Input
Amino acid sequence: MTMADVARAAGVSVSTVSHVINDTRVVREQTRESVLQAIERTGYTHNTIARALVTASTRTIGLTIPVVTNPFFTDVVHAIETETSTASYTLLLVDSSDDPDHELRAVRALHGRRVDGMIIAPTSSAPGSALAYLAANSVPTVLVDRLASEDFDQVGPDNEEPTAALVQHFAELGHRRIGMVAGLPGLTTTKERLRGYRLGLARCELPYDAGLLVQGASQAEPARQAVHDLLARPNPPSALVVANNLMTIGALRALREAGKRVPDDVGLASFDDVEWADLISPRLTTMAPPRLELGRTAVQLLMCRLADPTRSPRTVRLEPTFIHRESCGCNPTRAGSPEPPAAREKP
Amino acid sequence: MTMADVARAAGVSVSTVSHVINDTRVVREQTRESVLQAIERTGYTHNTIARALVTASTRTIGLTIPVVTNPFFTDVVHAIETETSTASYTLLLVDSSDDPDHELRAVRALHGRRVDGMIIAPTSSAPGSALAYLAANSVPTVLVDRLASEDFDQVGPDNEEPTAALVQHFAELGHRRIGMVAGLPGLTTTKERLRGYRLGLARCELPYDAGLLVQGASQAEPARQAVHDLLARPNPPSALVVANNLMTIGALRALREAGKRVPDDVGLASFDDVEWADLISPRLTTMAPPRLELGRTAVQLLMCRLADPTRSPRTVRLEPTFIHRESCGCNPTRAGSPEPPAAREKP
DNA sequence: AGCGCTCGCGCAAACGCTTGCGCATCCTTG
DNA sequence: CAAGGATGCGCAAGCGTTTGCGCGAGCGCT
Output
């Protein structure tokens, strides 16, 4: 069932078949009909890869994210999926496992498949990394979430100011020892949120104390361990800023294990929101990056670049929104809270 | 940077280049070296699609899931990703939005890209659906989670017995009015879990009462609405079986809004586990399907089918595990519970 | 009737790779 | 030293499309 078969069945040439399929030159109505029927009859399905070979375009975009199980990224992926599919592109998704080698392999595979462009939440920007490869092969690329290099189009949340705001919030509540659970070292988001942490401290004239800082590897279990250790230290924090959603799970577990009550014993606020933030008690105060917007913007940047590969790269920062609930120790007024109606009531 | 360029640079023919790349016939060590160098020098990257055209194999498998934001499916996807990538396949992922039309389009796109096989969590099995298309074009396919047709290889959790077990558990606790929040009508999982619900009732000699049953569309917000309505009915249930993870979120919100305490006012147990089941109070009793195993098995089934396209289709059922926590109204012993250590302590 | 247009379509050359076939060259052996 | 067998490689025919070029038929005009 190739185009040749269809052509034979319709008594025309392959070029005519191609033209009716792509609507790329005028064909007599009668002929078009018979071709359409022949397609129907033979059950022909277009071979996109043969087409790609000659047109040098696959209408496919490659997507590389660290972990497909992180709700933050799945929301981003979802937005990207929706946006690309309305532009009639298909997504090629690969999981980089937050490992530079794996990531490079993924990017290679994607490029080998001649994706038209790539969106990637980069794990590393070291030389010899996926990013270097992409630059070397001048693949149209946009970075998402982790803003690793101004040489690419990129979109991510603002990290520094919002994290500082979280710290300042705690300080205003009277906390003097504000701890932080930081993410995987090397990620730009980790660096920026850490910088925000220190910025917040400085603004409130609180000393930076390395003893209040732990590293949670951006994941739940390492974060649990880290917070566990943190709480065992001589002079533990009275408030905790957690740098992402997954680590928040770990932090909550560690706090419970240690018998600490939130927010009475330890105040808690996290960067990135979670679906169940309003289901636990106390409800979680978070700083929520606009996940969907992030994905949408990434696609838009990519489309712009595909349209004009020569334009100079843009960096877009999107503002997170502060979702003020109770784990910080406040009991914010319900009215005007950005909570959905479902979450307005206290359990 | 095509193979021809490399050949020229190395002073050999394209066939030799191809053979050293694919290691598909003996090449003098010296020649191989110079080809390898030429590849390095020219920055050549293999064109997978050109190769696919001639070998008629893309080493790509297509994956269609309803919603990429549902943690159940992302775990499945993750397992599939891991498993396929170790077999050096790449994944083409599309979101069907749980919409038959969208699904059919997705499947068409995937087939047009000549994926070697497909894994799909089908939305519909109606004639004219994606499944019909796949059968008609004899695309190697395996169904995952939703077991829609014995004509395909398929793997899903056992739904009926485990759901019945949940009902029986409540009955043993003395509940007489056990309600259910069912999923999207039309899904096989919905049907099976409903059947399990009725089976459980029958076994405990409890009457089936349509007034205890609501439909939550497999999603959080509709489920919240549904449970809201359910609780407003004259004689509301004292226990609730929720048919999936997302709807559990909705149910919890509705219960809180109605001022019902779990498990004192209403017992709760859900089919499918959630990450934060141990973080809320009371901790959630769930029936957890083996998500990773589901994904892994799907890939294995597909690999078998690719190896031997003629074998007759197999259906695999995997047993969920009962995770006995507290929302059912019990205070199960901690020892021997399948909970991770992190979750053993009560807040 | 002849000219030039328009209209509709077919021919065949790519696209970048794989692979069966066959030709040198060199080594082994009787 | 001739013959046969390895060994190492090139040639060219595809794979299923797209697309520039060009040709024939039909039409309106003078």
Q: What stands out?
A: The mean pLDDT of chain B is 93. Chain B has twelve helices and twelve strands.
